[in-house]
TrEMBL record:
Span of domain BROMI N-terminal: 17-132
Name under which the protein is recorded: Protein broad-minded
PANTHER family, A to Z: PROTEIN BROAD-MINDED, UPF0183 PROTEIN
Record-linked InterPro entries: BROMI_C, BROMI_M, BROMI_N, PHAF1/BROMI, Rab-GAP_TBC_sf
Family matches, as Pfam families: BROMI, BROMI_C, BROMI_N
Limits of the BROMI middle region domain: 172-847
Record keywords: Cell projection, Cilium, Cytoplasm, Developmental protein
Main location: other
Origin species: Owenia fusiformis
GO biological process: non-motile cilium assembly
Length: 1304
């Protein structure tokens, strides 16, 4: 022997090769050819985790180390001495060493020796095969024999595919096996042939030329009465199914052909349905085993068949359909026999095989295409379901047993031995409804309907089928299990799951469930309850059944199409209150059930669990604007509120639960727990009125807003969802609540802001966990770090409304401290303002660990807040924000270059806020500097000047052309001049219609020509016509009683005084005013006159809200707009406002008009919620959800309500968002065409911004974008067509509601 053999001794080498062969037999069996075997062995290291533990591999590694180790060490030592190689890099060194080793003489000698020795060991094993492998083969045969005959649970009837040892057969061996499998041979020879077949590689068997003989022999073996022979045949099939070869379809065809042969014609041992299934019979056991083997393959093959050609799937499906389409038409007077579908149902009651085959398009398309030409299967399934629903014979006495075992049927100890006929029918029904539920989810599956089940009978449509199932659910004679002990095979639960599955997809729900017949059948139990009548001999549906129906309806109401069906019925005549619609029946039942006003003839009142199920459906409806419109007449908020208050009083008087063993105490504890559940349920449903602006007003009027908001904040702190059908949390609802003064007060008192600020401070200034910091925190790249972005958006959402900010900040003084402790955390919004925004002392700077990051966060919050002009006026008058920012800019100047300001992140942000809050104008009327430096700007000189004192540099104020002295003639001016020449008092509505038509046509074609004095003339001549209209003039014309002396003594607030100066500055910039001093005096007089005039119509309200004490606290932006449109003329402005005050549009365009007004109902007047929000904002969301669902969804996902941004725009009359001409057009259109055009204008704006809204929703800064960015490129005249379309659809719904604002 050579030197290598001295290291790898003969015994060790033979043992190593033998171990490697035995360990890799599983990989070799899966190979289809010799080439595949070679490929497997080459990549054995990648596949076998134990590769490096084999003795042969260890020996080879040792030999490589001994032979090549010295050469490797010498090469490494030589390169280590070369300083240049160390600098060049390791990759170059390794490449050189590797090349040298590969071409070295030592490696060639070692490779030759190893190859020679391994070949010798393999040849030795081949020469002594029987002696070397006998023990391994005998051991494998013993294991196989034990697996085949020791336990039925471990046979091929089980779910595992058994494996056995392997050999390398040749063609002569295959021929010998085929001869042994012939039916004419002795059983011993057949068994020997089957055992050899099981040992061999299934891939070799299926691909060999002898497969037809093998298949024939296996078929005879399956048909043989000898259990050992048939079991061996099934063992081979199980082993073949374990591989992922395309040839496994041959085994599948073998089993299908065998089963078809048993059913066509049916063998005598095939049981009849009536007699049930007896598993003690050997023939039945064998048949079940074959079906089980087939079913296991059915459920597993979809994981692999994507690898195979499409024809492979087609052949499998066609073969399977040939089997399951076998049906029997029993002669008259005889009982039908069980079909293949019965056996599949016993083994797989939930039809999981069909679910997996229908899951992917690859197989689903083929399966549905075959169903079109082979409807027998679908007909059989539908027929059985319809017959079952018609007879309604459910084996209740055997229900629990049947539900325990069908999916795991076997013949082992402790398993069922017999299933009765009713059980078989019920299991087949279970299988069928799962089958149909998957079929109905796809269009081509639904296209199979209607189906003719019996001749001379009406075809079964989808609706008819669902009605039959629903009647099975609602039938009072069909008992139900308790909802807390229900099983997956309980009848009502099965039908409920079937219907719920259909409702989960919008399209499927609309096509299948949204039909009056289906919903009428579902609602029949509560309809009979409301009527005081009953069917089925006086029996009523059980509590569990009614809860199930409520669950189904809640899933229907979880999507937009289902909600529309519940609100309007099958016709879907939107925005109508049709009493026949399902929503009215549900709401009436809930209202009467809450007050226990149901007819006594209907039986005992429903439990709180039943009412809760249907109340949740109502909640899904009234949490939308459209649903609240339909359900509003029922005053559901009042009913729920009254019951909740009574329950809370009852709970307060209830005995406190304490541990006790007394049964009476246990009953009391159960009642107390039920009361707690009921109180929280009522409060939760009451809270969901706050999802819409009008619903929030209704919630406030119930007096329960504080408790509901506190409950919401507790759930929000726990990161809980709104409900089981809601995909998002409470962010959207919080933004709705925070937009009103009573809502913000409730949020503040509940500790919401305290928790928010504490978490924010922990993120900005502290570590999220109280651990030692070993590495510095990553310096944020963005101005607002990702960890703080959520809290930033929460502050922007909750501080977006001026009344809310005023309620939080008015009178709140900044603390004057000489020092701040590091553990001294801010707790209120005023504290946060002091620590992060008004950072004007060294003590505040040194109190921040991350000064720049925290201060820029505060400035970004300030920038979003001052987007509201009223909020800016409040902050400026109360905290002198401008001076703080200018001082910060001045402090950022270098000592050696006075007047120059260092350009950094903080100075850019301060400059942005200073320009933005000082200048007023639309997108083309002012230039806002950037707040970040781009790469291009960093390379060039920053062209936007920074400043530390006012006025703002001229670079930010573009030149605007003044009003032309020459009067331009157009269609509108001609129309108005003709009216003047005729000297006719315009009082006809027809004249107004003609005038508005000319105006709108000119706006669409030449908007730039409709401006200036032409618009004022249009308003002044149109106003008398509107005043004479009873529909428009809904407010009485009050007499103005103010005198000069009273006006002189009338003092404007600091907010209004600053607002006057800002408005005059804007008018001077637009060149509509000539003298700033005179204009300021005139506008102040207008503010005093309108303030005094509106005060005459106000009522005193005893309210703790700061915004409700005294006069309107904000600035009158509408009056300022009219003043500028009138070119600063006092008399014309006052005369217009005085006459305008009696119009309905004044209540919405002129925000202070209805502040604490005597014309409003007491509930609305005392609520502290502006009609601009509760009516206009509500209607904007109503139209938005119907016309622009993507935009509405973007708002919902962002947690920001569209009503909030619309209220923000409208409150300041679009100042800073639209150019002056478009603002004037907006005012004129709303006055001339009706106040509902205010709603349509907002929707048109959101439609124009749709792409940006969707993009910023993904970026997570939607509210910041809408508040801070002007609306560039929007022209109202260009969107009049869309606005007119909205008017055609929604005017009948929106305008009457807005005009009836004075009605209680």
């Amino acid at each position: 022997m050579t030197e290598t053999v001295e290291k790898l001794q003969e015994d060790a080498l033979i043992k190593g090769v033998k171990q490697l062969l035995l360990s890799t037999k599983g990989y070799l069996q899966d190979a289809n050819s010799v080439e595949d075997m070679e490929e497997t062995l080459v990549h054995l290291e990648e596949r076998d985790g134990d590769f490096h533990r084999y003795d042969l591999v260890k020996g080879l590694r040792a030999q490589v180390e001994e032979s090549l180790g010295p050469l490797i060490d010498s090469e490494l030592h030589r390169h280590a001495l070369d300083q240049y190689d160390q600098i060049a890099g390791n990759e170059h060194i390794l490449q050189q060493i590797t090349d040298k080793l590969i071409h070295s003489q030592q490696r060639k000698e070692m490779s030759g020796n190893l190859k020679q020795n391994v070949q010798w060991a393999v040849q030795y094993l081949l020469d002594n095969f029987d002696e070397e492998f006998r023990h391994s083969i005998e051991e494998s045969q013993a294991i196989q024999k034990h697996n085949l005959f020791s336990s039925d649970g471990e046979s091929s009837f089980g779910s595992s595919f058994n494996q056995s040892s392997f050999v390398f057969p040749n063609q002569e061996h295959f021929q010998h096996i085929a001869e042994n499998l012939e039916k004419s041979n002795f059983p011993e020879n057949r068994i020997e042939g089957l055992i050899s077949l099981v040992k061999a590689s299934s891939a070799d068997i299926l691909c060999s030329d002898y497969w037809p003989q093998f298949k024939k022999g296996l078929m005879h073996a399956l048909e043989d009465d000898d259990i050992k022979i048939s079991s061996l045949s099934m063992t081979f099939c199980a082993k073949a199914f374990a591989s992922c070869s395309p040839s496994t379809k041959e085994v599948f065809f073998l089993l299908v052909d065998y089963l078809i042969g048993q059913f066509q014609p049916p063998k005598s041992y095939i049981p009849k349905v009536k007699n049930g299934l007896d598993i003690n019979k050997a023939d039945t056991v064998k048949l079940l085993k074959v079906f089980r083997l087939l079913n296991e393959f059915q459920k597993q093959i979809p994981q692999y068949w994507i690898r195979f050609p499409e024809r492979f799937v087609e052949e499998l499906i066609e073969s399977m359909l040939k089997l399951i389409e076998i049906t029997y038409k029993a002669p008259m007077g005889s009982q039908p026999q069980m079909m293949p579908l019965h056996f599949l149902a016993v083994l797989d009651p939930q039809a999981k095989w069909f679910m997996t085959w229908m899951h992917g398009h690859y197989s689903r398309s083929i399966l549905l295409k075959n169903f079109e030409s082979c409807k027998v299967v679908v007909i059989a399934v539908i027929k059985h379901c319809m017959e079952f629903c018609g007879s309604r014979k459910v084996p209740f006495d055997l229900m629990s047993e049947a539900s325990d075992t069908p999916g795991s049927t076997g013949t082992g100890e402790g398993r069922r031995k017999h299933y009765t006929g009713p059980e078989i029918e019920y299991i087949y029904f279970i299988h069928s409804i799962h089958f149909i539920s998957k079929l109905l989810c796809f269009k081509h599956g639904r296209d199979l309907f209607p189906i003719t089940v019996k001749e001379k009978e009406e075809p079964v449509s989808i609706t008819k089928f669902l009605v039959s199932l629903t009647q099975l659910l609602t039938d009072p004679t069909v008992q139900s299990l308790h909802p807390h002990s229900q099983g997956v095979f309980e009848l009502c639960y099965l039908v409920t799951e079937f219907l719920v599955r259909l409702c989960q997809c919008d399209d499927v729900s609309e096509i299948c469930m949204c039909h009056d017949d289906v919903t009428s059948a579902l609602l029949s139990p509560i309809a009979h309850w409301l009527d005081g009548s009953s069917d089925q001999g006086g029996n009523m549906a059980s509590e569990t059944t009614r809860v199930y129906i409520g669950e189904i309806l809640s899933v229907v109401a979880s999507n937009s199409r289902g909600r529309r069906h519940l609100l309007y019925g099958e016709r879907e005549e939107r925005f109508t209150r049709t009493k026949s619609a399902p929503a009215h029946t549900i709401t009436e039942f809930v209202c009467k059930g809450l007050v226990k006003n149901l007819p006594r003839e209907s039986g005992p009142p429903p439990s709180c669990y039943v009412i809760e199920a249907y109340m949740y459906v109502c909640r899904q409806l009234y949490s939308t604007c459209e649903g609240l419109y339909v359900l509003y007449p029922y005053n559901l908020h009042t009913v729920i509120s009254n019951v909740w208050k009574a329950t809370r009083r009852q709970l307060e008087n209830a005995k406190t639960p304490t541990p006790s063993s007394d049964n009476s105490d246990d009953n009391e504890h159960a009642e107390s727990r039920e009361l707690i559940f009921w109180e929280e349920t009522l409060k939760d449903n009451l809270l969901n009125f706050a999802t819409t602006p009008k619903g929030l007003l209704l919630l406030q009027q119930t007096g329960a807003i504080d408790d509901c908001v506190s409950y919401m904040c507790s759930r929000y702190a726990k990161r809980l969802q709104v409900s089981k059908r809601e995909k998002f949390g409470y962010g959207y609802m919080i933004s709705q609540v925070a937009g009103t003064t009573p809502g913000i007060v409730a949020l503040d008192s509940s500790g919401f802001f305290n928790n928010l600020i504490r978490e924010l401070w922990s993120t900005l200034e502290c570590d999220s966990e109280d651990n030692f910091v070993y590495t510095p925190r990553i310096w944020p790249i963005d101005p607002i770090d990702k960890s703080a972005h959520k809290y930033f958006m929460s502050l922007v959402h909750t501080l977006s409304s001026f009344p809310s900010v005023y309620e939080l900040l008015r009178g709140g003084k900044l603390p004057a401290k000489d020092s701040y402790g590091f553990r001294e955390l801010p707790e209120t919004v005023v504290d946060l303002l002091d620590r992060l925004i008004v950072v004007n002392t060294e003590a505040k700077i040194h109190s921040l660990f991350n000064y720049e990051q925290s201060h820029i966060f505060g400035l970004r919050v300030l920038s979003a807040m001052v987007s509201s002009l009223d909020v800016f006026l409040l902050l400026q008058t109360q905290y002198d924000i401008h001076n703080v920012l200018l001082t910060g800019q001045e402090a950022n100047c270098p000592e050696d270059r006075q007047g120059e300001i260092i350009v950094d992140m903080l100075s850019l942000e301060r400059n942005y806020i200073l320009v933005k809050s000082y200048l007023i104008g639309g997108p083309s009327e002012r230039i806002i500097p950037p707040r970040e430096l781009t790469q291009i700007q960093m390379k060039k000189k920053f062209k936007y000047p920074l400043f530390s004192c006012y006025p703002v540099p001229r670079e930010y104020s573009p030149n605007i052309a003044g009003r032309s002295a020459m009067k331009q003639e157009n269609e509108l001016s001609k129309f108005l001049s003709e009216t003047t020449k005729k000297n006719r008092h315009v009082k006809s509505t027809s004249w107004l219609d003609k005038c508005s038509k000319v105006f709108l046509n000119l706006m669409s074609s030449k908007p730039e020509t409709v401006k200036g004095s032409l618009l004022t003339e249009l308003l002044e001549k149109s106003l008398p016509v509107l005043n004479n209209s009873q529909e428009e003039a809904i407010f009485p014309q009050m007499e103005y009683t103010g005198t000069d002396a009273q006006l002189k003594s009338y003092k404007l607030s600091s907010i209004k005084d600053l607002g006057v100066r800002m408005a005059v500055r804007y008018g001077m910039h637009l060149k509509v005013l000539t003298s700033s001093a005179e204009a300021a005096e005139n506008l102040s007089q207008i503010m005093k006159q309108t303030g005094y005039f509106l005060k005459q119509q106000q009522k005193h309200v005893d309210s703790p809200l700061r915004t409700m004490q005294g006069e309107y606290v904000g600035f009158d932006w509408f009056a300022a707009t009219i003043f500028l449109m009138m070119n600063g003329h006092v008399e014309r402005t006052w005369k217009f406002l005085y006459r305008f005050s009696c119009l309905a549009s004044s209540g919405y365009l002129w925000v202070p008009r209805l502040y604490c007004s005597m014309h409003l109902p007491p509930g609305l007047m005392e609520s502290g919620i502006s009609p601009l929000l509760s009516s206009t904002g509500h209607n904007v969301e109503l139209v938005l959800q119907a016309e622009l669902p993507l935009v509405y969804s973007a708002f919902r996902m962002s947690g920001f309500a569209p009503s909030q941004i619309c209220y923000h725009w409208l409150q300041q009359c679009f100042w800073n968002y639209l150019d002056w001409l478009d603002i004037c057009h907006y005012v004129c259109v709303c006055i001339l065409r009706g106040v509902d055009y205010q709603v349509y204008t907002c929707v048109a704006l959101l439609k124009y911004l749709q792409r940006d809204i969707l993009q910023h929703q993904q970026d997570g800064d939607l509210a910041v974008f809408l508040k801070e960015e002007s609306i560039k490129g929007f022209r109202l005249g260009a969107h009049l067509d869309f606005i007119y379309q909205l008017q055609q659809k929604f005017r009948k719904t929106i305008l009457p509601e807005m005009l009836n604002i004075t009605q209680p």
